[in-house]
Each structure stands twice: as C-alpha cells, then as structure tokens.
C-alpha cells in the first residue's frame, strides 16, 4: 500500500493523546462559563439517553400475579 493510501485513511489530526490533553486543559481551564455549559450539556444528554432507553417501562401498569 502506498504512503498516499495510508494518509487518506488516517484520522484528520485528533488522536487519543490530543483528546486527553484537550480534556485535561478543559478541566483545568479558568473559564468557568464554558466548562459549566459543557458539563450541563453532557448531563442533559445523559438524562435524555436514560429517558429514551427507559421509556418502555410503565411503572403504573398492574403487576402480574404469580
């Protein structure tokens, strides 16, 4: 395989090390507004995910008699 083929397959510049360094920089950043927005959006997304995945449970339905 040629070098051009390998370069086309590679990710566009964001490796695991860069992702971790960005996360650490965000955690230690002094800009609280941006960090709070990202944390709140993450918590909201997690809540939406939980609500959508648990939406098939009906807690008010009668329980089966065993």
From TrEMBL:
> Can you tell me where the transmembrane regions are?
37-54
Assigned keywords, A-Z = Membrane, Transmembrane, Transmembrane helix
Q: Name one Pfam family in it.
A: TOM6p
> Record's GO cellular component, any one?
mitochondrial outer membrane translocase complex
PANTHER family under this entry? MITOCHONDRIAL IMPORT RECEPTOR SUBUNIT TOM6 HOMOLOG (PTHR15527)
Q: What is this protein called?
A: Translocase of outer mitochondrial membrane 6 homolog (yeast)
């Amino acid at each position: 395989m040629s070098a051009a083929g390998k370069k086309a397959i590679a990710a566009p510049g964001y490796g695991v090390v860069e992702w971790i360094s960005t996360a650490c920089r965000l955690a230690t950043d002094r800009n609280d507004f941006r960090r709070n927005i990202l944390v709140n959006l993450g918590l909201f997304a997690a809540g939406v995910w939980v609500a959508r995945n648990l939406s098939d449970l009906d807690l008010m339905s009668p329980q089966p008699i065993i």
